[in-house]
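Minutes, project check-in

Agenda point 3 was the complex the collaborators sent over. CS summarized: two entities, 255 residues total, and the question is how they sit relative to each other. Sequences were read into the notes so everyone works from the same version.
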Amino acid sequence: MKLASWNVNSIRQRQSHIRDWLQKEHPDWLFLQEIKCETSIFPQEIFEELGYKAAVVGQKAYNGVAILSRHPFEILHKVLPGLKDEQPQARYIEIKSQDIILGNLYLPNGNSGGTAGYQAKLDFMNALADHVKDLLDQEQNCLFAGDYNVCPTDNDLSPGVLPPDDALVRYSTRANFRRLLWLGLSDALRVLYPEEKLYTFWDYTKGRWQRDQGLRIDHVLLSPRLTEQLKTVRIDREERAREQPSDHVPIVVEF
DNA sequence: ATGTCGGGCACAGCCCGA
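CS then shared the predicted structure for the full assembly.
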């Protein structure tokens, strides 16, 4: 099985990139984040021509997640279970396909909106951990991938690109990420590449791409049995060098 | 200090978020 996750920063601006990438890679599933469109205008037809059905949770202007699948699936959740929010943002979708539970997430960045904005990030991470614990207690094969907006350690960012109190590297952010690992999930990339400096995001400003000053914030977390079956993990840096790229690139796992 | 994108609003540049 081959699964990829990609924050595309607008589905409308990146349709042709995604179509090209699907034709090249033929993943079983592609997780998309920051589609930035309402569910009703997601361009499903383009992907259906390539054999993919879409599960979409969109909203106006911001956020938005979708899963493209070559296999039959059922949608389990359109909001992260346990998240107490009157009007939840479009940040989570979960399906079951090939007897695996697949969760696609776009975690709040946490740098805007002051204290409340950062708290929303921690609330999301806490709800995610509780949900992960439930599924692992049931011995479900499961996988949670997406834009976590977390640099797990100092090895996951280029030195000096973020201030120490940035929400992507703050103590509580990293502690909550470690909790997911201690529950039993593994960070797929670090299973195979424990030390390498590998990034999935380069800011559009300040020549970050040209200087290779990036962040590793897009992650694929695997339940124990899937970890045992892990074959390859790859970050597709080439996408960042294309014309009009997203600021994130795909992370691809095979198991 | 600035740098770059994308979307909304409303139709021209600002504002927000990243």
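Noted in discussion: Chain A has six helices and twelve strands.
Follow-up: revisit at the next meeting once the mutant set is ready.
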